[in-house]
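Any chance you could type out some protein's one-letter sequence along with its backbone structure tokens so I can compare the two?
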Amino acid sequence: MKSFVLLLSAFAIHHTAFSSPPNILLILADDLGYGDVRCYNADSKVPTPNIDRLVSEGMHFTDAHSPATVCTPSRYSLMTGQMAFRVPSGGTVFQGTGGPSLIAPGRLTLPAMLKQQGYATTAVGKWHIGLTFRDQAGGAIHSGERAALQRIDYSCRIEGGPLDHGFDRFFGTACCPTTDWLYAFIDGDHIPVPPTGPIDKSKLPKHPYANDCRAGFIAPDFPMEEVDLVFLKKSRDFIAQHARTSPKQPFFLYHATQAVHLPSFAAPEFQGKSKAGPHGDFIAEFDHIVGELMRELDQHGLADNTLVILSSDNGPEVSSVVHMRADHAHDGAKPWRGIKRDAWEGGHRVPFIVRWPGKVKAGGTSDQTLCLTDIMATVAAITAAELPHNAAEDSFNLLPALEGHATAPIRPYLLTHAFGGQRTLSIRRANWKYIAHRGSGGNNYDKGELKPYALPDTDPDAPGQLYDLATDPGEATNLYSQKPEIVKELQALLEQSKTTGRSRP
């Protein structure tokens, strides 16, 4: 009887939301760690007042996860509600002109679903799910190497980008804006101002957080230290224009920042602001961006009917964690073991904050386990969109948790994968986490700057890892050999999910 009452309650919410669908602003940070913001880590050395305000006015989740521990597969999973390891090349991380798009033609995406519901859909910032550029002979370019850039025919339409997957508008970059060879803005499906020559890195900042910038080609209008401010202006302009011209039409704005992916090139006005070095300044700039987007909503009277979601595509980067720990006593992964690329919690447990006035209780906290894939099913419930069986296969509706009605776990289990794609899968059910491989699944802790952070393997002969996060949140004690029955159950559940191609019923 209790479950029936909950079902009716969810149904009523579903139709209330459908009668007045909210605007949706999805802010996705890059490499922002769980411990990088004050609301998740009281010892953070970087003030984040705007993100903290978002938490005070909404709900933050303490058990939220990126689908993968690197950007491309996480972004694919966010856009489709499907784990990336299920598709060919799903573990790939694209660079430069890398492609083609991981999203298959015809697959329902989050923006396409919202477009069907009458939403105006806009993406601003980093795409990084694969594109197809063409050369002068019409041949597809799918290499991420530097030389491939010199073959691009910039008069050709760029295929497989946001406009081909449900967005009405796009302004941003193919991959990591200040890292991946092609330093130029895409407007829609073209690059209006192509690169004119190689980047001169001698003019860029030099510090321990500035070394992830490849020697590619740059357009004359591409400001390496102010890319995020360009993105911010584009999103603010969209909100303002939409409020003027289409005030009755709901919108979906996906704002994907460069911050805080290395290199940490904060804009000049943020340099020195955080008192926690160049990377701290970049976190401060991201916090400023959040605040400005919220102010834009307030200015146009849109805040009360806008669902705001903020999260990150994976955990914090190696160099930023190592140097921030040493230089500023700031730990972007705190309190978890591992960082970006790792299967351990620090690689994929991320901030997840939701603000929706009148629907989500202000100052709320939830320990529901969630994945970024769940945004699609949740938004479907909010907007009364129907999810076909062959879409969003790994997405669960979190609306009961947002509304405070969930009395039991919504997800039966959680899947994640590390840098090696399907070879580095993990599954979590309740407090038990099974990692189907040895080691981190991404980084090398046997040498170099990560060696001081290596933990002894308490079960060195085991082919995998099992942790009880309830008693061992730091994943220090491998219980693989001590709990064979749990290992067997989780292995069977993982194989079932792989065989059936889904985790959603």
Notes: The chain has eleven helices and 20 strands.
